[in-house]
Amino acid sequence: MWAMIVKEFRQLRRDRRTLAMMIALPVLLLIVLGYAASFDVKSIPVAVAGPSAAAVAPALPSPFHVVTTDPAAGSNWAQDQLRDGHAAVAVVTGNGGQPSVLIDGSQLFTAQATLAALAKLHAAHQVGGAGAPEPSVTILYNPSLKTSYVMIPGLAGVVLVFIGTIITSLGVVRERQSGTLEQLAVMPLRPRDVILGKIAPYFAVAAVDLAVVLGVGIAIFGVPFRGSAAVFALGALLFVFVTLGIGVLISTVSQNQGQAIQLAVMTMLPQVLLSGLIFPLSSIAAGVRWIAYLLPLTYFNEISRGVMLRAEPIGALWEPFVFLTLLGLVVVTLATLRFRRYLAPAQSGGMRRLQHVAAESGGPESAGPDSAGVEVTAAEDVTAEVAGAPDAAAPDATAQHGYGRPI
After folding, report:
1. What span, in angstroms and rounded, lies between the C-alpha atoms of 260 and 268?
2. What distance in Å separates the CA atoms of residue 107 and residue 113, rounded to the nearest whole number?
């Protein structure tokens, strides 16, 4: 037993990548979750409209943060600000009358923090004896503040991440371990063609899974789909393009399927935790929040929630679309370059194997003058070895015959 323990420790020491993941991953998750695991909304962006906007905006206490005002605008402008994601709360003022507060229900934690802040502000006015009228509160896009309305669009992205990253990352590694990579290397295909051919089936599976998740979410959980299906499909297409590229990139830097799964999980966990799916981006510390803007799921969450819940047009979603496109170009370019280097050793080995098979199957006429010379030299070497062999080789030959007597 002690020998087995020593052997396992030595094998673990040789696998430095796995050892580094076992030590670094828990520390990394602890640091990231320590800064990101917070549901406290510290800042609420507010848009103020109406004749009294200039007077109301400076009077709003923390955590309200006024981002834009328009004294000439009304309720329609305020709703457009919420729909396009420019603000989470909109205050529509009148000429000394009852103000109206519109809340974006698709931002669940921000909406809950807004209701708590408004209740606290009203209680303070009651205690102070102020005669300010109580505002009328309207929650848009998710009036009941259901968690499923917010989670289902994000979970659709998680399913695409799982298919695109983890499953695809095993594809090329499986080719290398099974020995079929050499066959791909000697085919008249460019690395780009091989990559597209590898990801095409996973793309189809991801599309089917996305349709199933959306169908179940709409039919069972009652999640609305208010926006354009074409805009949502375009965003999902770009997102799948990025995730599949990440999967191929991971497979090119992994030596076996275990390493591929480990790297895929390391890229998947930050996307689930830091993309705004669980914790609000505004509550994540600035030292960790920048990681969220490098993750494709962050932008797909904006697209899916904006289209499904708020019917947000493509013009207001140009930023996540642009960033997804840039991420896709960078990832696929890196995957193509890495895959070209990945194929190089297999390609040289495959060509040598084909040349060896051709030399064995073909005669001197088909082998060419060089190969004929090689064959003559090899024959001469064999003849010389046989001529110079000791007489003791004869008993070996008779022994190999199996009958114990000379042939």
Report:
1. 12
2. 10
